[in-house]
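Question (not urgent): is this output format expected?
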Amino acid sequence: MTHRTMRDFLSALEQHGLLRRISRPVDRMWEPAALAKWMYQALPAEQRFGMYFENVKGTTIPLVTGALGANSAAYAVALDVEEDRVNETLGKACRNRIPPKVVESALCQEVVITGADVRLSYLPIPVWTPGKDVGPYITTNTVTKDYDTGIQNVGVYRTMVRDETTVIPNLAPGRQGHQNMLTWIGKGKVAPIAWVIGASPAVHLAAVANLPYGADEMDVAGGLLGEPVAMVKAKTVDLMVPADAEIIIEGEILLGETAMEGPFGEFAGYMGPVDPRPVVRITAITHRRDPVFYGYTSQMPPSESTTIQSMTNAGVMLQALREEMGEPSVSDLYIDLTFGGLLAHAVVAMKPGYPAHSKKVGRMIAATWPVKRVTVVDDDVDIRDHTHVEWAMNARFNPVRDTVLIDDVYFPINMDPSVRSLTSQSTMGSKIVCDATLKVDAGTFSLPPKEIMAKALDLWKEIGLPEFEIPKRAKLRIDRS
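Got this back:
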């Protein structure tokens, strides 16, 4: 069972040495984001950490970023499992979904701000690409609801702060938040919307899962928690929100009013497009006493958002392939930590059962999920080890025989930089499947037999050479030597 509150998680992260507190006063307009960029761009993954800015100028509320997705170790702490059990834990949550429960009182409503007292500058909302973003952006879970079914959706929609009481969320056509909005606007009704800041890690990680329209992410969050997520009625809009969150921002999507949203640094590493989007009037800010503000840092990968989206969706995809799409031959799946809801490279390990089985699985992944590249390898390859995957590509992949190209792929909201054009509205791209499974008998591995390697390891230790942990890549190879 993962941590019930963001505070519990931050405490656990600190105990693991994966959270740094920064007491020096910082300017939210540039300093937190720029520091986070240096961390992700300069430090190796194992040295990264969540950032807890205790003193943000102009507000009494601290700011946290990078904690959920500093690296795979931090993500595992969020789920309270070992790193090698992340996919298993996500798959179990998808299988055993637990609907939320309704409560009457909530920590997230200990303080309620409404009416003329609403002021977004009260919160330490950062500028995430200083010098290029148009202004501060809320980057967290966004709640909308289908008017007809009452089913809520929780996703991540970048939201531009326009002034003290209005924002412009990127509710782009084709995404579920936009579909939900239309079910209200089409009936001439004001659509409710809310932003959930600093909820349980289970809520944050479930919210980035690519689930079909009509599936409630809170059911998956309950599966991760091992108990129902406590939900409370929002104070001013017709939505249910996580009761234990740090902060909730409530609002109404104004009928017929749009404004230009962007530019904003996006997950693919380029500035995102500027387009008209709906305007939202903020109706309330509610929060815990002494709240903590949480925001995802994204922009140039690697980043927090690409880490958590890659790791969550790898587990969701693996469970769907094995149990819903009838492919138990698939043993593992990894996304390369650049997935931001689109694009990225998925690597899948499997034991092919018949000719072209691996190609079939690769095509299935490409057709079902918005990844751009799929590489299929045998289950004797460590798919999280770049060197091992590249070896499989060199030793088992014949480009003319083992490549599948998929053309005329639509990437929504102009998000693929490789096909983006300032002079054309077309965003049609393509995908590639590489089948790097073994198809011919290439002979035995060029390693000594397992018993000799075991003796050599004893000798290594006897001589006093540097200690090491045997990589999974080496274990898989030596076991077959």
